[in-house]
């Protein structure tokens, strides 16, 4: 019989507060498994690749800069999720599923298809 694991088994105990134990969740891997501090689109899309996100019937355009970050309206975002979250008013956003790039055949496709290549 397999032992059922407690969800907090790998959490680090930070401090106790009376009868409550406060745990700190383990850090998640960075987007696309990249080393921390490296923008997730670095090496995935070429610089100046145009990107598009449609939200509430409005199209938003961005491009990939030389460092793999998104540049939109003069602002630079370290990840597609950060840029998408700004567009969506701070809501959690998986930018890989929202942003699209134009393939060689002219079709706009989600950048998520590049994540596992």
Spatial gap, N to C terminus: 38 Å
Strand content: 25-35%
Any idea what the radius of gyration is? 19 Å
Structural class by helix and strand composition: alpha+beta
Number of domains: 1
Number of E strands: 8
In the predicted model, the low-confidence regions spanning at least 5 consecutive residues are none
Q: Considering DSSP H and I runs of 4 or more, what fraction of the residues is helical?
A: 10-25%
Strand order of the largest sheet: 6-5-4-3-7-8
Q: Major β-sheet, in short?
A: 6 strands, antiparallel
Number of helices: 3
Structure description:
The chain is built from three helices and eight strands, in the order E-E-E-E-E-E-H-H-E-E-H. It has 117 residues and is an alpha+beta fold. The protein has one domain. The protein has a six-stranded antiparallel β-sheet. Strand 3 and strand 4 (58-64) form a beta hairpin. The protein is globular. The N and C termini lie far apart (38 Å). The model has no long low-confidence stretch (mean pLDDT 77).
Quick summary:
By secondary structure, the protein is α+β, with helices and mostly antiparallel strands. The chain is built from three helices and eight strands, in the order E-E-E-E-E-E-H-H-E-E-H.
Name the descriptors.
alpha+beta, 8 strands, two-stranded antiparallel ribbon, six-stranded antiparallel sheet, globular
How is the topology of this model organized?
Layout: E1 12-17, E2 20-24, E3 50-55, E4 58-64, E5 70-72, E6 75-77, H1 80-87, H2 95-98, E7 100-102, E8 108-110, H3 112-115
């Amino acid at each position: 019989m397999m032992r059922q694991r407690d969800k907090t088994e790998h959490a680090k105990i930070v401090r106790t507060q009376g009868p409550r134990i406060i745990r700190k969740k383990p850090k998640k891997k960075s987007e696309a498994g990249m080393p921390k501090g490296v923008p997730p689109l670095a090496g995935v899309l070429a610089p100046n690749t145009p990107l598009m996100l449609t939200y509430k019937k409005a199209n938003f355009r961005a491009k990939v800069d030389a460092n793999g970050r998104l540049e939109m309206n003069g602002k630079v975002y370290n990840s597609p999720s950060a840029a998408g979250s700004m567009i969506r008013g701070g809501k959690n956003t998986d930018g890989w599923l929202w942003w699209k790039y134009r393939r060689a055949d002219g079709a706009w496709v989600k950048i998520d298809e590049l994540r596992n290549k």
